[in-house]
Amino acid sequence: WTSTGDYCMNGITREKVIVVCRAAGIPVFERNFSLVEAYGADEAFLTGTFGAQTPVGEIDGRRIGSGDMGPMTRRIRELYKDLILQESA
Known about the structure:
Distance between the termini: 30 Å
Order of helices and strands: HHEEEEH
Strand order of the largest sheet: 1-2
Mean pLDDT: 92
CATH architecture: Alpha-Beta Barrel
CATH superfamily: D-amino Acid Aminotransferase, subunit A, domain 2
Number of domains: 1
Radius of gyration: 13 Å
CATH topology: D-amino Acid Aminotransferase, Chain A, domain 2
Structural class: alpha+beta
Shape: globular
C-alpha cells in the first residue's frame, strides 16, 4: 500500500518502485490508510533518493513484522537496484 499522494511526496523513487512492482506482478494499492492500519503491516518501508527503500522496524514503539527488513522489501529493493543499473548502463 502507498498513499494516493495526499500524505506523501510523489517522488521519482516512489514512482520507480511502483513501476518495478507492477512489472514484476507485485500488487500496488494506492489509497490513503490510517496509522492504525500501518501498525498491523507485515512489512513497511520508506522510499527516498538516498535511502532507496529503507525498512521501517517500528512505528510509535510498535514493532512492524519481525522488526527487520522483510522478504517483500528485500525483493523490491533488488528489483529497484536492477532497474537503476539498467537505466545507468
